Amino acid sequence: MLKTIRVLAWAAVALLVVAIVGTLAYQSFYGGSDRSMIADTKMGAPFRLVDHNGDPITEEAIEGQPAAVFFGFTHCPEVCPTTLYELAGWLDQLGEDGENIQAFFISVDPERDTPEAMKSYVENFTDRITGITGDPKEIHELEKAWRVYAKKVPLEDGDYTMDHTASVMLVDSEGRFKGTIAYGESSDTALEKLRRLAKG
């Protein structure tokens, strides 16, 4: 009897450890926590891609002003449209307080996200968000530079979707990490983070 209790106790401990590890992995990959990044860490890397108008764009576009940066894709069923809709609304609510904040939507699916597709997509939400796409290899390097998780996931019908970090990254005018807005975070909290970002 005592042996059985010990076995059950160790099994419970093992399940608890698995749950904790799984939660931490989820937070690391999907942006539920800022702990995987250090405040004031310089984010990003040099790149040469194209914006949603088909014009060349480099890392210089993200420098010089505080920025909200989100990685996603136009075929995203829920997270991306929800995030862009909310981000557009928050920027609108901030009014003059948030005029200096830039916003970028960087594709993790450049094979399908052409400049034309990105333009049609982002302009459904606001003219404040700049879409960025381009060479898949450069996009992949940019994902690594921003500590973003992105992975192609095959579907049963032969198509595919993308798993990716679901947080909005916040950086100051010098490109230093200032936190994230997690998917599903309350509007009040998100607005306060953006106000702090705008003030520098």
TrEMBL record:
Cystine pairings recorded for this chain: C76-C80
Keywords: Copper, Disulfide bond, Metal-binding
Residue span, Thioredoxin domain: 38-200
CDD domains assigned: SCO
Gene3D superfamilies linked: Glutaredoxin
InterPro entries noted in UniProt: SCO1/SenC, Thioredoxin-like_sf, Thioredoxin_domain
Gene Ontology MF term list: metal ion binding
Binding residue positions for Cu cation: C76, C80, H164
Family: Belongs to the SCO1/2 family.
Name of this chain's protein: SCO family protein
Species name: Notoacmeibacter ruber
